[in-house]
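Case study.
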Amino acid sequence: MSKLVIVGTVAFDTIETPFGKTDKILGGAATYIGISASNFEVDGAIVSVVGGDFPEENIDLLKDKGINVEGLEIVKDGKTFFWSGKYHNDMNVRDTLTTDLNVLADFNPVVPQVYSDAEVVMLGNLHPMVQMGVIEQMQNPKLIVLDTMNFWMDSALADLKSTIAKVDVITINDEEARQLSGEYSLVTAAKKIMEMGPAFVVIKKGEHGALLFHKDEMFYAPALPLAEVFDPTGAGDTFAGGFSGYLAKTGDFSFENMKIAVIYGSVLASFCVEKFGTERMVNLSKKDVQQRLEQFKKLTQFKIH
Amino acid sequence: MSKLVIVGTVAFDTIETPFGKTDKILGGAATYIGISASNFEVDGAIVSVVGGDFPEENIDLLKDKGINVEGLEIVKDGKTFFWSGKYHNDMNVRDTLTTDLNVLADFNPVVPQVYSDAEVVMLGNLHPMVQMGVIEQMQNPKLIVLDTMNFWMDSALADLKSTIAKVDVITINDEEARQLSGEYSLVTAAKKIMEMGPAFVVIKKGEHGALLFHKDEMFYAPALPLAEVFDPTGAGDTFAGGFSGYLAKTGDFSFENMKIAVIYGSVLASFCVEKFGTERMVNLSKKDVQQRLEQFKKLTQFKIH
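After joint prediction, the assembly is written out as follows.
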């Protein structure tokens, strides 16, 4: 099985949407990425950190999904990263209510020795220097995918740019692409971001789907229109997990295959938003994924005679 | 050739975008619909009204596109409908600066006798009672498509609903679909609007593409991502013109063929926004359309082995 190294937060979230409110539930970029990627036959390992307050059952949940947690450091006397947020009717917009970095503040990632030869590295949202630290521990990765957010553009732009220069693919949302490039048009924004290093740029547009750019080529995958978007938390990470998981499994990093990876990312993200937190993702069957893939085909494929 | 009756405004527009400002130029829903539909082999006729200030050269332009203008009433001592608006960076949002109804205020549409047996009717944006007046003059239309906007929902909702009950397809933007249905989710909104009468609902999302709904089926056509959206005025009407023109030409009103119609609508709209007003649309070749159709295929089509 291909190895996939996954970096990102492992967290507690409290989420409020027009449909309800959660207690402290399992969240974090690496959590969503790992669970999403586990839908492919890959040997995924999470590199992250939690506090002594992180329940054993959450670790078991990850293990049950076949995710290696050797690189998940537990700081016994520390507290797990906590985020709380509130969504409104337009779920593309959210208010962050709390961000407690806790154990993340001093995190030095350690990639388990047996995973340092992984072909694919998925750098989920974290400080760009933590992401860089992981890149430096890898022996000869064939594909490095980076996800990030506006927070690092505001607070650590120089670090972020030096990390971006080292990766093959960046996944980013539309507003962040505009902020990073200084361009309003997403086509021009993607061009400028490619000049910063990545050969591929994926721009995530939430309910409006995702765009893949490579050289002069473009591909568009819609989000599945849903009657109810229950909770969008983790949808972008779930997309990244499906994207990188599929690529790790197939080992084919061509533009043509990356189209399919974007579709799988969208397929998995469409489940994520159906329930609060990771609830829908942990109960996903192969058949569910296959059926939804067929829905995506129906949604987008046409024949002109 | 199949006949296509087109109703809607024929107007003067003054447009300001981040890229510049126009003088009074040719505009109006029926104008854009007619020019767009003229890309298919159809016998299109515009039913509308202008004032004595409407220059002969504009009428010649429509005639040159093979559009019948027998139903374009000229009120010698009246003034042509005038609209002016301003767009910002986010071209999905615009400020209307002026709306002078002028001759439109007392318009009684007359469908030329020879077009009363047309198979397809495209009701462009106008007062719903004017749209109804046209429906009543048709002998046995096979397909009636209605476009409308929030203005009529605010000012003539009951009239609008009785017109909607008579049509087969409604094209509407996302905010209008939400307003008309009272539902935030576009999937649920489309379901409620289908209950009002139309068997097909097309929801236009501007730069985010268009969704086609029919019973429990969905189809999604993206908008072509462009480096520069110069002027979005008329894009929705151009979409409607491509959609109805293709359907009139083929005479096939199945869901499968309507998918292609949505793609052609999106293809034509992608040209409309490249220049101010109708400038790009009047200089469109068959080859241009064919090439862009290929771009749409590349943008959306994928093969999973």
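Observations recorded in class. DSSP finds eleven helices and 14 strands in chain B. The longest strand of chain B covers residues 42-51. We will return to this complex in the next lecture.
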